[in-house]
């Protein structure tokens, strides 16, 4: 079902006209009953006109800015009114107001297993609005509840498709790629909420952490990975510095070293450069050999 915009009459002129008819009917009845001017047919006509005017007052309704009114007649969808202010339509139309304002929804903290099977806690903030009032009213029973439930379901499905941490180059993970994860979550939500006339404007993770039972172990693993990466960088830099030192000594001809002395020098330099504590120098006052 798609939205069908229809026109409505301005409510204030209609209200003034109906009040004028009611006043005229009241005056006609007053002249007949009190002043004796006229007879029964005139009273009957005035009563009938007054009843019709009073019934027409039920056709007045108000539409606020960024709001729409979905009209139906005896269960059949008639159309949707977007005009703001006091409006008037057929008094037999049933009217349901739908807000078109932008809304925020924050899911609760969900406990799910990420791609590698580790339990994590995740929550998201979803920004959404209704773009088709007819679909929101007639395609689902309660569109607000539908948005909440489907948002949590989409968040669970997305969280199980990606690992928490990046283990390979180019791999998308929940923690290291927030922009890509937000786009994926929005795609999941669009697929689920389009049928309800809802457009998702933005969807972002608001909370992401390992579950308490494995948080400490995961922290130790992250620290170990950081230490290994730092050590690898230190060793790579130290090897470059040792290579440069040997090349400069050989180029300048300050000292001639055989292979055994080169190996000893390399060992000493690596100990100095790669050690995490300050080294204590030993002064050799004798011969080099």
List the defining traits of the structure above.
Band_7/SPFH_dom_sf; 4-stranded antiparallel sheet; 3 domains; 289 residues; 47% helix; alpha+beta; 3-stranded antiparallel sheet; Band_7; Tetrahydropterin Synthase, Chain A; transmembrane helix
Protein described:
It is found in: Membrane. Helix content is 47%, strand content 21%. It has three domains: 9-96, no CATH class; 103-210, Band 7 domain (Tetrahydropterin Synthase, Chain A, 2-Layer Sandwich); 215-274. The chain is rod-shaped. The mean pLDDT is 83. By secondary structure, it is an alpha+beta fold. The chain has helices at residues 11-33, 40-56, 133-138, 143-159, 178-193, 212-252, 259-274; strands at residues 9-10, 60-63, 67-73, 76-81, 85-88, 94-99, 103-106, 110-113, 119-130, 198-210. 17% of the residues are buried.
Describe how the helices and strands are arranged.
Elements: E1 9-10, H1 11-33, H2 40-56, E2 60-63, E3 67-73, E4 76-81, E5 85-88, E6 94-99, E7 103-106, E8 110-113, E9 119-130, H3 133-138, H4 143-159, H5 178-193, E10 198-210, H6 212-252, H7 259-274
Helix pairs in contact: 1-2, 4-5, 6-7
Main location: membrane
Membrane topology: Single-pass membrane protein
Pfam families: Band_7
């Amino acid at each position: 079902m798609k939205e069908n915009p229809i026109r409505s009459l301005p409510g204030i002129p209609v209200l003034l006209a109906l009040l004028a008819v009611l006043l005229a009917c009241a005056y006609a009845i007053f002249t007949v009953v009190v002043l004796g001017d006229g007879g029964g047919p005139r009273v009957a006509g005035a009563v009938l006109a007054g009843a019709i005017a009073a019934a027409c007052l039920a056709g007045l309704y108000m539409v606020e800015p960024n709001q729409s009114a979905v009209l139906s007649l005896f269960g059949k969808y008639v159309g949707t009114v977007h005009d703001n202010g006091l409006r008037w339509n057929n008094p037999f139309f049933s009217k349901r107001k739908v807000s078109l304002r932008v809304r925020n929804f924050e899911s609760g903290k969900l406990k799910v297993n990420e791609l590698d099977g580790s339990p994590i806690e995740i929550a998201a903030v979803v920004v959404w609005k209704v773009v088709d009032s007819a679909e929101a009213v007639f395609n689902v029973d309660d569109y607000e509840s539908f948005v909440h439930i489907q948002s949590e379901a989409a968040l669970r499905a997305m969280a199980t498709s990606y690992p928490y941490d990046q283990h390979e180059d180019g791999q998308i993970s929940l923690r290291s790629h927030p922009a890509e994860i937000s786009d994926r979550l929005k795609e999941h939500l669009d697929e689920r909420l389009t049928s309800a006339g809802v457009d998702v404007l933005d969807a972002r993770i608001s909370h992401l952490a390992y579950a308490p039972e494995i948080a400490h172990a995961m922290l130790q693993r992250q620290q170990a990975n950081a230490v290994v990466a730092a050590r690898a960088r230190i060793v790579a830099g130290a090897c470059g510095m040792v290579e440069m030192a040997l090349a400069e000594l050989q180029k300048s001809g300050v000292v001639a070293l055989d292979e055994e002395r080169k190996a000893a020098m390399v060992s000493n330099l690596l100990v100095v450069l790669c050690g995490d504590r300050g080294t204590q120098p030993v002064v050799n006052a004798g011969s080099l050999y």
